[in-house]
Design brief:
- The protein has helices at 7-14, 68-80, 92-98, 100-116, 155-158, 160-183, 189-192, 198-207, 215-222; strands at 19-26, 35-42, 82-90, 126-132, 146-152.
- By secondary structure, the chain is an alpha/beta fold.
- The chain has a five-stranded mixed sheet with strand order 3-2-1-4-5.
- Helix 2 (68-80) crosses helix 6 and helix 3 packs across helix 4.
- The protein is globular.
- The termini are far apart.
């Protein structure tokens, strides 16, 4: 199992940035529910030079490799050790309008802007943003902050701040799908989290679509 490091963040601090942030999305592939992005700044004073079983971040890694039960525990530690974090989400109807790629970028922009509003600018204004994937974020309303970005492919496996953001986003989105399940228990949202499992597809065939489904994605299933 690959565990991310804080090396890239330390390099950014050495280059003179005041804050190093990670950003990651979850929920791009499902046929129901929002795409959710989290951005976070981990407190470097709470992260040691070496990983060990006694460190709070020892098990922090790409959320796809973490069980739901462990994510619930890890997110508590992550949030306690964040200088700031933000959430961005784009709902199914908007995904249908602008496509999933644009929806991901919009959710990233919203998450970063949310994070920036919670930073104490008196402690610095230079932010280095590490974004998971191939694309940086356009048109960030950064207000008092100077934001430099770098896109990192497989960043959630390599960079601790991105991995932490992926866990925040995953836990947040899972809670949304649990709320969907309370409203529409016949679809099994609490189990498949909106992905196109056999159970989910059969429920759609039997009960039709809900306001939470991405109609543009369901067209692919019908092909």
């Amino acid at each position: 199992m690959i565990f991310p490091t804080f090396t890239k963040e330390r390099q950014g601090l050495q280059r003179g940035f005041d804050f190093i942030a990670g950003c990651d999305e979850v929920g791009a592939g499902p046929v129901a529910g929002p795409v959710v992005v989290a951005a976070c700044i981990l407190n470097p004073n709470n992260i040691g030079e070496k990983r060990s079983g006694k460190k709070w971040y020892y098990r922090v890694r790409d959320s796809k490799t973490v069980s739901e039960k462990e994510r619930e525990k890890l997110v508590e530690e992550i949030l306690k050790n964040c200088i700031s974090y933000g959430i961005g989400e784009v709902q199914a109807d908007e995904i249908d309008k602008i496509n999933i790629h644009q929806a991901k970028l919009l959710a990233m922009k919203l998450a970063v802007e949310d994070m920036l509003t919670k930073i104490d600018s008196e402690k610095g204004n230079k932010v280095f943003l590490l974004v998971d994937g191939k694309f940086v974020i356009k048109n960030i309303d950064s207000k008092k902050f100077l934001v430099e970005q770098e896109a990192v492919i497989a960043g959630d496996s390599l960079i601790l701040s991105i991995a932490a953001a992926s866990i925040i986003a995953k836990v947040y989105r899972d809670k949304i799908l649990k709320e969907y399940d309370l409203k529409h228990p016949e679809y099994g949202f609490i189990r498949h989290k909106g992905y196109n499992t056999k159970e989910h597809v059969n429920a759609i065939i039997t009960h039709g679509i809900t306001e939470f489904h991405r109609k543009s994605f369901l067209k692919r299933l019908a092909q």
